[in-house]
Prior knowledge:
The protein contains two helices and no strands. The protein has helices spanning 8-18, 25-47. It is flat and about 35 Å long.
Amino acid sequence: MSLGGGDPQVILRRIRHGFIICDDTELCDKIISQDVETEQRRRNIAKT
């Protein structure tokens, strides 16, 4: 299953973030930035 290139996890995450409906914007930003940090950490580990 291909969604037009890119890491499937990243694509799924983008889709998920696109559909976040949240009254607490600060909380949403926190969730998204945590996700980004986790993704960057995972990629750094994959490189080594």
